[in-house]
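Table S2 (continued). Query chain:
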Amino acid sequence: MILNKKTYIAFLDIDGVLTENFEMKEGNFEYGRQVPFKLEAKENIHYLQYYTNCKFVITSTWRITLTKNELEIAFKERGLNIKIHDVTPILNCERGQEIDVWLQCNECDDYIIIDDHVKDIRDWCKNIIEVNPNEGFSESNLNLGMKYLEK
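Corresponding output:
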């Protein structure tokens, strides 16, 4: 069943969700920008978009140094062909607050948050999918996301 009559947003982190957790590489921030995306994570993101028609809003720190167009290019170079709808504002506060501000300024029927570090999100938002950074966005994460959006 394709859920496409409502506007769904998927707030998407990158490191630890699509790539290896860059913190595991002695905190080399640029490392994460050079590695390919995990195959299963890409397949699951494509599946999520196809069946929910969700729009992706990037919450990752990658949005600080890359424009939306550059993010789309980086995604395509790694085999993830999704349109990026937007990025959350950079407010120098907790990620959950940035997501909350985005939600207050934009319309959507429902949303999910896909992230591997959710400590700074839990107090602000619902429908959080906590990704194991060693596995990436897994089938069980996908099933939870579909469940949240099928309500």
